Amino acid sequence: MFDRLRNFLEFNGFNVISRMADRFGVRASRLRLLFIYLSFVTLGVTFAFYLIMAFFLWVKDGVVIRRKSVFDL
Known about the structure:
Low-confidence stretches: none
Number of strands: 0
Number of helices: 2
């Protein structure tokens, strides 16, 4: 059962890329490579956004003075 499901998904997954490549007039291997590169780029952008936000939170914690109570003025 698992092998049938895997074969079905592999066949239809490669069929989608092939049909898109035929429609755009490019080779399927180039289109697969493009999807791989795009996945790395989106992962990199997400990680860079995380690092930038962590930096700004670190700066905010250094600038903003936290008081434990209202009476610490």
